[in-house]
Model the fold of this input.
Amino acid sequence: MERSYDDKLKNRNFGDLFYETQYWLIFLAPNQSNIGTCVIALKRHCGSLSGLKEEEWIDFGKTVKQIESSLKKAFNPTLFNWGALMNTDYMNEKPDPHIHWHFIPRYRQKVEFGGLIFEDLYFGSMHPRPVLEISENARQMIIGKIKENL
Amino acid sequence: MERSYDDKLKNRNFGDLFYETQYWLIFLAPNQSNIGTCVIALKRHCGSLSGLKEEEWIDFGKTVKQIESSLKKAFNPTLFNWGALMNTDYMNEKPDPHIHWHFIPRYRQKVEFGGLIFEDLYFGSMHPRPVLEISENARQMIIGKIKENL
Done:
C-alpha cells in the first residue's frame, strides 16, 4: 500500500484497523450496537465488485470463514449479515467509492461484555440499527477478544 | 439439482428464475421498485457464506461482473448494492437458511420502461424501499432486457 493511500482510507471512517489478509483489511466498525461489527476493505483502490480479481475473491472467501469463525467463538452471534453498498459515497459531488464490506453479526440474545450490554433490537430485519459508539478501551477489548480467536 | 430441492427453492419466494451459471441461480426479485433487482442463490443447499467453496466464490465473482454489466447496459443504474442477510429465515422456529444474495441496482435518476416509471426514492441510503410488485408481463419484459445484455 502506498503511504498516500493509507491516508485516504483513514478519512473513510471505516474504524480501527486490527488485522489484514493478503488483499483485505479488517476494521472494527465505529458503530458497535451489534458487538463485533466490522468493515472489510480491499487494500488496493477499486470502486465496484465487478473490478475484483479472482485471487481477491478467493482470499475474501477465506477471510469470511476466518472472521465468522472468530466472532462465533468470541460472542456467539446467531447469524451474520454481509453487505457491499457504497451508497454514501455517491452522495458526494465527486464519488470515489472504495470496495468495503459491512460485516454485521446478528444476535437473538443480549451480550454482556466488558461491563456493557449489547442488544440487537431489530434481530431478524434490516431496520436501521441505533448507533452505539463506545470508548477506545472497550473497542480495544473487543478487538482483543476477536484476535484471540482469529 | 435434485428435484426435491427445486421445490424447496420455489417456496422461498426468490422470484422468477431466468438464468444460471455453474453454481448460481439468478432470479428477478418480486420487488421491482428498483428495476432489475435480482436474487442470486446457490444451487446446492448451504446455510452460511463460511460454507462456500473456492470454486463457488470464483464463479460468484464472474456472475457479479456479468450481471452488473448487463444491468448497466439495460437500465443504466448509478451503482449496485449487494447483500447476504438471511435474516428472515431466523424468524422461523426451525431456521434453514439458504445462501442467496440481494442484488439491488440503485438509481440517481428515474427510469421509464414498458410504460412504467421506476424511482429510487431513497437513493444514497439503505432506508427500506417501498414494495412494487408488477405484472407478469412487465417482469418478462425486464427479464428479456437483462438477458439481451447478459
Summary: Helices of chain B lie at 3-10, 54-75, 136-148.
